[in-house]
Specification:
Length: 549
């Protein structure tokens, strides 16, 4: 799937888990991506057929992981083709057997008819008494011919329901009807339905059995229908395979399914890289949102999407039940709460404030104290991710503080993230978030160091990436950041200045408990050099430039 700067990726439409609801809005399919085993709801207009775009995509994407995904598609196609050929062969054999049986039936019918004619001729030559006897027998049995009588007395052929059974129909969706025309419409169903149908939908079985008990139709009809539906399901999956996903972002309900938005009024302060994606997903999922940003022009897009505009942080807090904030650093977080027309001026008993900024534990503890002192409720909820994950609604949320408020934010967290953790008292989430970003920042610096060392020793950087992608370090983060470096594309997905800030705060956290952080300290120095080279507003992967200058 094409997620942001990711290349288009081959996948196939599959059945979603039974407990995963389809998102509201535009028509979409549940897609499994080859090679990654990732799944997502993808809108119809964001899908492209595999074969017409195959060569084009292979030319664009040279990575081995992509080639492996294409190989997996081709292998699946070969297996599917083999199954189809086997099914077609069996169908032809069955057709030949039926034709042979019908031919024998016709011959038998002809013989019966000839015998009946001879018998009738003999009867005509008989005495009047004989004629009377035959007439009496005929009136008792009705007007049926000997052939029809023989058919009535013989057992019904397997798989051929009586006329009243054929009237039982199952409603089909318009999508199934369209796909079923053509190949499936001409498909000859196997006559044998006596064996139980395996792996069918138990919910459908329950529904059908209930209907069967009401209409008292023979079980053979139920088996025939479920058999056909099973084959239809397999056919639909084989037909609707192998799509390229060209959307810049996957649907935000890829993991959480359909979301019932809270009826509480939501406020949001700060529309940066992370905040913008969060607000967009809150609106998509039906939340009522009021927005504010220091640069007011950033609010315009969200006003068009249905958000309301707040003139100051205090106004947003006073008019909303729960107000979220996501700003850059401890100073910005304090200014937002304690400054003129700030959050604190809008806090009244029962008002809720959720700070999603990545700050130190001392800062978040101070903010919690002043909010609670005014009768408000406080929750810290920094997020792990980047701009793309924010846009996709796939952030990881680390929360601490008021547990009841955490529960009240449930629908909001579902809209913006794939999972959330409640970590206890205020300060715990800040500490955990700094540790996570310390590991991430140090890893990024190590990646840059390895790529530059490969270059200066005459090794291929692309080959190094391919090797890493085949090993235990393989990850989306590794692949994306290396691709940024190899392409010289440092458009920010996570600002370099912010990862350096988090490293600095993590080192201070280690100092506060007398714990050594030499790796983080070394990485921090490299980021500081990158900032001196005017890379602050580029992506964190621009730390690479600190090694080549």
């Amino acid at each position: 799937g094409k997620l942001g700067r990711y290349p288009p990726w081959p996948g196939k439409i599959v059945n979603p888990p039974k407990d995963l609801k389809k998102p509201r809005g535009k028509k979409c399919f549940f897609v499994k991506f080859f090679g990654t085993e990732d799944h997502a709801w993808i809108k119809v207009e964001q899908l492209k057929p595999y074969h017409p775009h195959k060569e084009e995509m292979i030319k664009i994407n040279k990575g081995k992981r992509f080639q492996q995904a294409v190989d997996a598609v081709e292998e699946f196609l070969r297996k599917t083709k083999g199954k189809d050929q086997a099914s077609s062969h069996n169908s032809n054999e069955e057709k030949n057997r039926r034709n042979s049986s019908e031919e024998r039936g016709k011959q038998s019918a002809g013989e019966e008819k000839r015998k009946a004619s001879l018998s009738e001729g003999k009867l005509k030559k008989g005495t009047g008494e004989g004629k009377k006897r035959v007439s009496s027998v005929s009136s008792e049995r009705g007007s049926k011919s000997p052939l029809k009588r023989a058919q009535d007395q013989s057992p019904r052929k397997r798989g051929r329901p009586p006329k009243d059974e054929k009237d039982l129909t199952i409603p089909e969706s318009s999508t199934v009807k369209r796909v079923m025309t053509g190949t499936v419409a001409g498909f000859k169903w196997p006559p044998s339905v006596s064996e139980p149908v395996k792996d069918s939908d138990p919910h459908f079985h329950h529904f059908l059995q209930k209907k069967m008990s009401q209409t008292e139709k023979p079980a053979v009809c139920y088996q025939a229908i479920t058999k056909k539906l099973k084959v239809c399901e397999e056919f639909l999956q084989s037909c609707a395979l192998y799509f390229f996903f060209f959307s810049p972002a996957a649907d935000s309900t890829a993991v959480n399914g359909s979301i019932t938005p809270t009826d509480k009024k939501i406020g949001f302060l700060g529309l940066g890289l992370m905040g913008s994606g969060i607000v967009s997903n809150l609106l998509k999922m039906g939340h009522t949102v009021t927005v504010w940003n220091r640069t007011a022009e950033k609010c315009d897009l969200f006003i068009q999407e249905g958000a309301r505009l707040g003139r100051t942080p205090a106004e947003v807090v006073s008019t909303c039940d729960i107000t979220f904030a996501c700003v850059s650093d401890p100073k910005a977080a304090k200014d937002l709460v304690l400054g003129p027309s700030g959050v604190l001026q809008g806090i009244r008993p029962g008002k809720c404030y959720v700070d999603m900024s990545t700050v130190d534990a001392d800062t978040v503890t101070e903010l919690a104290q002043v909010i609670v002192s005014r009768g408000g409720r406080f929750l810290e909820a920094p997020v792990s991710g980047n701009q793309q994950l924010s846009n996709d609604g796939m952030l990881v949320i680390l929360a601490a503080g008021d547990r009841g408020l955490y529960e009240d934010c449930s629908s909001c967290f579902q809209a913006m993230g794939k999972t959330s953790f409640f970590l206890g008292e205020v300060g715990n989430a800040a500490k955990m978030m700094l540790i996570v970003n310390m590991v991430q920042g140090s890893f990024m610096a190590t990646i840059a160091e390895g790529l530059t060392l490969a270059q200066v020793t005459g090794q291929s950087q692309q080959t190094l990436l391919d090797i890493l992608n085949q090993g235990q370090l393989a990850s989306i983060f590794l692949d994306q950041k290396c691709q940024n470096i190899l392409q010289g594309n440092f458009k920010p997905d996570f600002y370099l200045k912010y990862i350096q800030k988090d490293l600095r705060l993590a080192i201070a956290l280690g100092d506060s408990v007398n714990h050594p952080t030499p790796m983080a300290a070394a990485a921090n120095e490299v980021y500081k050099r990158a900032k001196a080279l005017d890379q602050s507003d580029n992506d964190m992967s621009a730390v690479y430039r600190a090694y080549i200058h």
